[in-house]
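Batch job 17 of 40 flagged for manual review because the log was empty.
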Amino acid sequence: MDEQLKHWRAHPYAKQVQHARDPTIQLIAEDNIQKLYSRYDILEAQFRITTEYATLTKFYCDKKKKLNEELQSIERQLHKEEFDGVEFWEDNFGYVGLQNLDNIME
């Protein structure tokens, strides 16, 4: 706590208050400075997080898109493994059908 008080006493406003004759006024001023520094630290952290979030939002959107593409690729590979000899097709309306290649070749 003494180190924090030394830090706050280095503040220009605190230096003015140190010359006050009443020690109660000095303590009140130091308490106010402590509150201001605490509030400043909170706002600075919020600003930093907000800035990082704004920067990372695009990154996470791109990452989500890439992960979704990878998941779809894996799903296609799984379907290919599970339905060996069966071809998936999709028409213009989004309907998915199965076509057994073994039956067609016969």
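Reviewer: the log was empty due to a logging misconfiguration, but the result itself is present. The helical segments are 2-9, 12-18, 23-82, 101-105. Unflagging and moving on to job 18.
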